[in-house]
Predict the structure.
Amino acid sequence: MKTEQQESVLDANMARRSFLRYAGVASVGLLTTAACHKDHKITPSSTGVDLGAKNDFAILNYAYALEQLEAAFYLQVAATPFSGITSAETKLLTDIRDHEVLHREFFKAALGAKAIPDLTPDFSSIDFSNRAKVLAAAKAFEDTGVTAYDGVGYLIESADYLLIAGKIVSVEARHAALISNMITPGSFAGPDVIDTTNSLNKSATIGEVLKIANGFLKTKVSAVNYGYIAS
Amino acid sequence: MNLFNIIEEIENVDPEVYGRLSPRRDVIKNITSFGSKVAVAALPFAVGTMFKKAYAADAAASTVIGVLNYALTLEYLESTFYNAGKDKGIALIPASAATNYFNQVTTDENNHVTFLTSVIKSLGGTPVSKPEIDLTAGNGSGDGPFKDVLTNYSTFLAVAQAFEDTGVRAYKGQAGFLLKNQVVLTAALSIHAVEARHASAIRQIRAQTPWITSTTSLGNDTGIALLNGNYDGEQNVTQGGVNVTSLKSATSSTTSVAVATAAFDEALSSEQVLALLSGSFLVKH
């Protein structure tokens, strides 16, 4: 089976060629821009992308970046199942893969020419053969996804886009609760993700989320206009 | 009222609350300084005015308070339900399920009631009182279609699932009224996510998919026809003008209806939710 990582490699040339086409929309990381000016060569996509001007497209691209990462992760989980995986676990993790792939494809279709390029993941820190490691990573992706959508809701200008974000974030929360319970039964709304004084899910800023996401990306994502530059 | 609790709660969702209230944040943080200038009796009024000024630009205050009171009504329903279940003890809920699931859910729903009440007061509004509730959905008769809700665990679970899934839809339906309101929208979305976590967990107990998996013609996947209305609309596959079944999936050039409906939860308006609840779970005279 072809994995997402392999797919990304195959698509790498396409991504590089698309670079200039997208550059006018998504302002590109400073280093990349400097390199282009210097020698007029297109640098590899691994140097990074930026979410661009402060508007709804930046937020949608932010969501698209996170969904690309989640989809790539679960494609790999499905392609190389951890040892001892049960049929019930395979079914659930395959369902989640399908949801994340659809979220990715939805944002790609909805953003059209305004979409950021395909991101190349870096899962070298995850041992995909180990159940505990895979589920811990899955929990991190899902919990981060929920805090990310909740944290940017107020930045969205369009009620239509806000509604779509709302339709997706509750599904991410459903995933998050399932994965938590797979790790420790009864941990679906634990104190690591919920403020115990008022039972609100935690939320996070763009910078906080991208810092975590970039740990799993070769293509670093910045949001200069929201105060975050990938290091 | 405890000003600090309220400000601290709001600070959880709006780290800039002090800055909004006063550019001199220390004045607000230091209650002795603030208190010395305002008679204690006038404090609640002063606080209400302070918050109204601080957030007036975000949305009409009456709209925001209306949304919060609607949310409070739903949280009262949920908290009443889980507290009644908890009171029944192991006669209703197996000990392991109480430990692993229902103690947490009960605490969360009670916290949501307290939180929403505080926020409504802090915005200068009046929280609605607890509605008259019939957990059997019998409009006060105690003899509704779920009449064994507090004696039959499977009925209890079914109603719990319906409340959580419907709660998720209800919060989602209010987001647009809170557009760009950093404090209240973020809080609402944060409760929304917790309701979705609950829904997922309860669906797992019921051996359902943790997400709502609809067919082309039926949103309801609970197997309980009485709940068709609560799930109607979940069968939608068009998002932002895109029929998402036409998009590629991991293994095909298209996406199944099951995946397309499960990947997106759908909203309900307050009118739709109240039509489902009023005259059944919420007593209408």
